[in-house]
Amino acid sequence: MGEIALSFQHVHKSFFGVPVLRDINIDIKRGHILGLIGENGAGKSTLMNILGGVVPFENGEIYLDGQLYTPHNPEDATKHGISFIHQELNLFTNLSIAENLLITNFPTLGKAPLINRREMVKKTSEFLKLVDLPLSPDTMVEQLSPGERQLVEVAKALSTDASIIIFDEPTTSLTNRETERLFEIIRRLHDSGRTIIYISHILGDVMRLADDIAVLRDGELIDHGPCKEFSINRMITQMVGREINQIYPDRITPTGQEPLLEIKNLSRAGIVKDINFTLHNEEILGVFGLMGSGRSELAQIIFGLEACEEGEILFKQESTNHFSPREKIQKKMGFVTENRREEGLMMTASVAENLGLVALDSHKGPLNTVIRSSLDQAVNGIADKLRIKSTNIQKHLAKGLSGGNQQKVVIGKWLLTEPKVLVVDEPTRGVDVGAKSEIYHILNEIASNGAGILFISSEIEELMGMCDRILIMSYGEIVGSVEREYFDREEILRMAFREHNNGIKNE
Amino acid sequence: MIGKQVSRHSARQFFRNILLSENFILYLSIFYFLILIPFVPNIASQTNLENLLSNIWPLFAVAIGQTFVLIIAGIDLSQGAIISITSVVGAMFIAQKADPIVFDKSPIWGSILFENGAIFAHSPYGIPIALIAMLLTGILIGLLNGTVIAYFKIPAFMVTLVSQMLFGAAAIFIVKSENIINLPESFISIGTGGFGIISYALIITVILAIISQFILSRTVFGRWLYAVGTNIRASLVSGIPTQRVIILAYTFSGFCAAVASILYSSRMMMGRPTLGGSFLLDIVGAAVIGGSSLSGGKGKVMWTLFGVIFLQLLGNSLRLLNVSFFTTEIVKGSVILLAALIDVTRTRFLARNA
Lengths: 507, 354
Prior knowledge:
The complex is a heterodimer of chains A (507) and B (354).
Chain A: E1 4-15, E2 18-29, E3 33-37, H1 44-51, E4 59-64, E5 67-68, H2 74-79, E6 82-85, H3 97-101, H4 117-130, H5 146-159, E7 164-168, H6 176-191, E8 195-199, H7 203-209, E9 212-217, E10 220-226, H8 232-240, E11 259-268, E12 272-280, E13 284-289, H9 295-303, E14 310-315, E15 318-319, H10 325-330, E16 333-336, H11 340-344, H12 351-356, H13 372-385, H14 403-415, E17 421-425, H15 433-448, E18 452-457, H16 460-466, E19 469-474, E20 477-483, H17 489-506
Parallel strand pairs in A: 3-8, 3-9, 6-7, 7-8, 13-18, 13-19, 16-17, 17-18
Antiparallel strand pairs in A: 1-2, 1-4, 4-5, 9-10, 11-12, 11-14, 14-15, 19-20
Helix pairs in contact in A: 4-5, 14-15
Chain B: H1 2-20, H2 24-39, H3 46-71, H4 79-94, H5 100-103, E1 113-114, E2 117-118, H6 126-152, H7 156-175, H8 185-192, E3 194-195, E4 198-199, H9 200-218, H10 220-230, H11 232-237, H12 242-268, H13 280-290, H14 301-320, H15 325-353
Antiparallel strand pairs in B: 1-2, 3-4
């Protein structure tokens, strides 16, 4: 040990004259896990894309095992034993596991251009065994859970004989259990001598896994050293460049007495069962559940995107069971969806168009025209208020923003409608610490101004930091409700898992 | 020295600006036109220009409807059939007389069409009735397309292709593939008359274009169209009545096809069951050359006008050069492909500079 597997020396990169990486020097020891952290836009992805041969770099050198390494394309990287497991999974969902694994390297029947099915299945089974995935190689990827897909990606990396494996935010769509499983595999890869670069916003995970930590900020390497020298607070301070004293705002306003949203005996076959709760004004009500617990589906039913089969959804004391999203919005309900790329934003439209989309109806003049002056004023106001980082919101496209700013746009477009009830589903997924804290403060302010917030999340810490009360969901049912003064991480997790385990036993 | 460098630099800048300009196709058309004058002086003659213009208006009218549908990331392949069937529907009410030898096998013979004229041939309201019937037919077919696409979630390509076959065949069936001639003078004058170069067709189409662009750029509905084309799921979550938007877009597309059919039928002085058969490539091609995107969220009425002008100019010039019909089609196809290529490159370039 002690040998350097990968070394960046004076690596520099700029896009259109704007430096995104400045003089990066990192040595990664063979067989170590490097935790790479930094806010969105700090340069982590660019650095990894350089390593993966996706983008070229201008100055500096990269050494692999002491050899100069200049990748020109992703194949170069693969040939040199570098494998990249992306944040957005790159699997073909319409193909089987085996086909995905061997897509660039199908075993053939002798020299003939025909695929040797038997060999394919055999090879794939071996790799699946390495990642503890007891599935048939012929299983279609679309049938797999996000966690299983992540493991297939790992198996794919192993199939290319990778000695350096990069994980970019691998746990964003995994349940706690799947995450644990992934970590175990990562540790096993580590034990077998592979070098791993692990990128994540979840600093606790990085602490648990990494041997060394490197912090990037604004394209510069701020700190680099053994993990034991770091604390979470130090990491945050270095990433953000200033101290964030308080990630979560104080919840000082007491919960109101006016019931805004009452859910009574809500059921939908196979999805949610007998849900009952009431959301009051000035209340932040958390919903905690593992993936597949029905938390997001519940939100969609409440908002009218999915049909409500049984029970009642009372919104401001009126039954809204058969209201469309449009009618709910007119009654002042808002819904920050879980997936901003697919459901939240028009990626190829400008920031301003995105912000103004829901509020169009309140800026309507004669002949159904849009009153541009008042709309622009509202949109500019909200962009300033939420400090959305864009120099020209009329021209800049939503896809050009960082994750945190995109999320602020999604929240901003609902704020313009002044919702009385705001349902937020995973509002801080894939968002860095600085932006997270800003989003928490925004949500807190909405609640303080009299709205009720239904806060759905799989991050237990943020619920404990933000909510007045947390409902725990498991297998489509609410299995517990905890008031703020009795918040206890272990207890909440146990409730969320208990039903899970029962469920498995009963099967 | 420096001056020379600056001028070279500004020249490059100039060409780049032209290439990236949204009026690129217009500039290209003008450039092409000027280049051709020395070779085919005829192209700038008054008769040819009038001919060129009169070809532009009906195609523009129908292509406006297609633009709306392209903006919501759809496609309307049935516009050709709508032109055909509305042409027949209009003519069958107002033909002044009909030849029994030609039409006695037609299903409308004896009920709507008679030897001494059609049912409303001699009514003072004949022409308004025929026009309303044509527009209504277009609207209804569009409504049908839109409803099936929005509610049953069948791909637009499929639905409108079936409509194209169905209504194209229906048009031929109604008149047993014969043209209905002997239309009244006042109907014919819609497509042929006017005040000098300001033809009625021009007036009708320009009014349609202005209203359409107003809808697109100024109204809430216009914003909805672009939003649905950019991300339909996000639009639904944001409270846009996506199904209504889809239905209205296709209905409007049918309406525009009917307007075009009025212009074409009156100019050709007949109700022709195969009238719209050959237009499909021109309609979609004109919109796409203009810059509307097949993947939705992008399009303007003005762009489509440029596309129509370019395509008509191209066809016209090739005819003047005595190029055969088939060669003309090959060239047109290649140009549409080229336009798509330019569009992709341009988008990529703009994205990189954003």
